[in-house]
Each structure stands twice: as structure tokens, then as C-alpha cells.
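call fold(seq) -> C-alpha cells
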Amino acid sequence: MAASFRAFFLPIICKTTTNNSHPHALDSLHVRRAAKIADKSAGFTSPHPNFGCVITTNGKVVGEGYLYAQGTKPAEVQAVEAAGELCRGATAYVNMEPGDCHGDRTAVSALVKWHPLQHLRGHAVRALRSEGLQVDVLGEDLKSKIVQEALKSCLIVNAPLIYRAASRVPFSVLKYAMTLDGKIAASSGHASWISSKESRYRVLELRGRSDAIIVGGNTVRKDNPRLTARHGGGHVPIRIVMSQTLNLPEVANLWDISSVPTIVVTQRGARKSFQKFLASKGVEVVEFDILNTRDVMEYFYNRGYLSIFWECGGTLAASAISSGIIHKVFAFVAPKIIGGKNAPTPIGELGMVEMTQALDLIDFSYEQIGPDMLISGFLQPLPDPTPVIPSVNETYAIDPFVTPYESSIIFFYKTWDLYGAFSNFSPHPIQMPDENGEYQTWPSIEHYYQAHKFVGVNDPMARDCVEGIKSAKSPEEAARMGRTMQRQHPDLVRSDWDTVKIDVMYRALKSKFSIYPHLNSMLLSTAGSVLVEASPHDLFWGGGRDGEGLNYLGRLLMQLRSEFLGESLTSSESSFLAP
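ret:
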């Protein structure tokens, strides 16, 4: 979040000693380790940063952890639990400052018990120091070449968030595979396969780190791609097709949305009949007055996307580069020569006539993958993550989730927003009675909600799905499993789901806010304010991008608040509760 941007990107070292000597090499090694394990969750924490924590005693690692996904146990808590008694008097290394939610301070409390943390820049560092811990901030308290290298690793692991906040478009990565003579296909258009099996597997991993994959119409017509993690497992990004004329085939793998949604962006008015056809398939169509890559990326920025993976042809790639929205490039070079005067190249016309105009990659690297060579690097320098604290209006311009809304309306969305603990994805286990009246523990409200789509259905697959959702590692995985099963097997969803789902959510919310006193207090503290779930995607539980959503989650929270207060709803609340 922009308002606490600097705080979130301060790699820190917390010590219980007051020794002023710092073994920079060892400290830097442990900080880089924290950044490395933080990277394990890339793609799962979006749109939040990747966070890792390493705890050492006498230079030896005794515990570590990383934030797996939003709504899961904080990295600091995992590391402390792993270290056990060895964490007393130890040193904690984190790749950025802890960023606990308002009303939920478990991350900082894992390192310092009972100290309150406000959702503001620098408060975690002050909180830790006030308890007598020595806190060293890389680049501020520790300065050396090796420290700068460790600091850089902490920034790169969260490069998508840094670039997104600075450029106001999602972090965009262009990937292509080409022959040694610079061709992405033969003159005939045939392109399977340029790169090796090892390189293609790496591409699947890179896809899983992104929120969405974007291709152009030519790619759909010629390659008919699936753009999924075809070998199973991991995060599966949204598919985006960018086509000005909608000259697309009716039969295409991307129109199958049983596993993952597809969005088509096009020029306003293009092939209305085909738009209706796509809608009948469940494909979302978004029209633009003038279709261009920057407007499309600004649109997906406003929808909350963190990173986009571009797997398009040369024409679209050139347009994206020219508009300044590509931040990083992954080029797989195969030891093959195909030739061909008209064989396509990875980048189309950029309007450059002299070699001095060529774009240089920054922080580039080489890696051999099978027989291929992967060259990667940034097209734009890493933005400064420590800007001057912006005003409220400036903050909103950087991050729409930090908004200058009037105080009578409280918006919440992701679990570590100011009121993120209101989210059904927050990491608060609940206890709910099963069909036999026996209480069971569910990892989060979202686990409970998704599983109850299939509870009571007399089918082995439905029962297995319930157990699978209950054991999901994060609320997001539980949601993904439930939604996928609902799309692929709608016959397994309980017949009364549409009529009972609001009650299922309400009972789960009541359990959560009854079990945790600090959450109950936080909810009651909002008395007189309208609560709005600010999801731009969910038009049932959320408020939508332009307020067109039904906001049922906000409504239920206001209803629950009134129940706890023993009061009737105010007129303003009633208007929001009315469907």
C-alpha cells in the first residue's frame, strides 16, 4: 500500500542485544535468505508483497517461515514457532518491515509480545525498538556494498509491487522464445517447438507468478493456446485476449472457462454478435473506445491486478514496449536456425533507425536451461521505494485501496488493509457445528463457506471436495477449489445453495466476531459508519468497481454489528442493506 510504502520495504534485523558491532556479511546472508524464501509464495500473495523471516542464534538458523498467501499464518509467527525456545535472545531477519492489519497484531507480537502496531509507515520498527530490541534497517543503519546487495535482493523479490505502485500499471513481463537467428516461428507460421521441454516447464513456473497472461488475436488464431498450468498444481492466472476486431475463431481452448476465467478486451462496437457468443460461453468482454496497451493496463491496474505475463506476438509486443508498460523481459534463445525473410520476430516495429536508440536491459542475467539460454533483465530501473510521504490525494493516485473517502463509509478488501480483518479471507479459525451438532474448526470463513456449497450432497466426489477445501493451505486455495468444482460440476452443488448462502456466511461471521474480542471491538468501533467490501470483481459480496455491486458482505457485517449493539439499523445503514 502506498501510504506505508516505505515501511513495507524496509528490510530489518531485530536483535535483543545492544552490541553495536555488525557482521555485515553474515547479516546480509540471512537477509538474502529471508528474501529467497519469501519468493516461494510469488503468485499466491498478490496483490500483497512476498514476506520471509529467518531467526538465528549465534549465526545458526533455528527457524524460518514465509507468508504463503493472504489469510495464512504470518512469516514471523511461523519462524518463532519453528525456533521454539531457541528464539529467546535470537536475531530475526525479515525482507521488509512487518505490516500487521488493524486489529490483528500477531506478526509483531511474534517478535515482541503485546506491543500495539498501527497501520502506518515505520510503526513496526518503532514498536520493536521501544521494547529494547536492536533494529537495524538495511540502507539506513547498515551501509556497505554487501548490505546494498542484500537490500537489492529484498527489493527485487517484491519488484512487481514496487513497479506497480510507481507506474500505476501492473508489473508487466514480456516472454518469448526465439531461434538463434531471431525467429519466433517459421515463414509458414509453425512454431512448435522452438524451445526445449525444460524451457517450457520454466514458462509454466513463470506463468504461476502472475495474475494474468495476455495474448493477441494472432496467437489465438494460429496457436489455439490453453495458457494454463497444464501439468497441474500451483496458481493458475486469468487469461486475457487483446483483439481490436474480434476476428477470432468460435472454437478455441480459451473459451473453456471451467478451470480458469478468460477476459477479452476489444474496440467498442466490434462484432457484437461474437461478443454475445463469448458471453454465452461465460467469457467476459470489455470494450474500449480506442484499444491500446496502456489503457488496457491502466484498466487492469484499477481492477487490482499486480502482474501481467505477456506471451504475445511481435506486433503486440512492440506496441506494449512503445507505450512504456513492459518492465521486464524473459527471452529464451534456442540453438536453432530457421531462416526465412518473412519469418516473424519477437518484437515488431519500434520506429528506431540507429543502434544508439536500442533499449538496454538493466540487471540482466544469463541462465542455461537444457540446451537453451535464458536472458532476462529489466527494461526500466527499479523505482525508489522510499519516496516522501504523500498526501491523501497523492496516495489515492498511487493506490486506489488507500482512499480519501468520507469517514462515514469504511471500505475494506484484502486481509492486510486497514480494516482487512473484516474480510472472509482473514486468518481467523472459526468453530461451527456440523450436521450432527458437533463443533469443528475451520481455518477461515472462506474455507467454511466454499465447503458448504457441497455439504450434504450424497456423492463421494462432493464429500471429497468438502474435505479437500477444509484442508486447503490458504483461504485463496479454498476459494479456488470451491469455485472450480462449482464451474466444472454444477450438479454437485447443493440444490438450496442460492437460498442459504447468505445465512451460511452470516453464521460464520457471527462465530468469528464472537470468538475474537479484538475483532468484536473493531467491528463495534465502526458504529455509525457504512461498511463496504471494496472488491472490484465480486458483484454479490462486494461493492464492485463503480459501486454497482450488492455488497452483501458489508451488509451482513452491519447487521451483525447492530445485533451486537442491540440496536436497530440507522436509516443510512438500512438503505445499504436493502437489496
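The radius of gyration is 25 Å.
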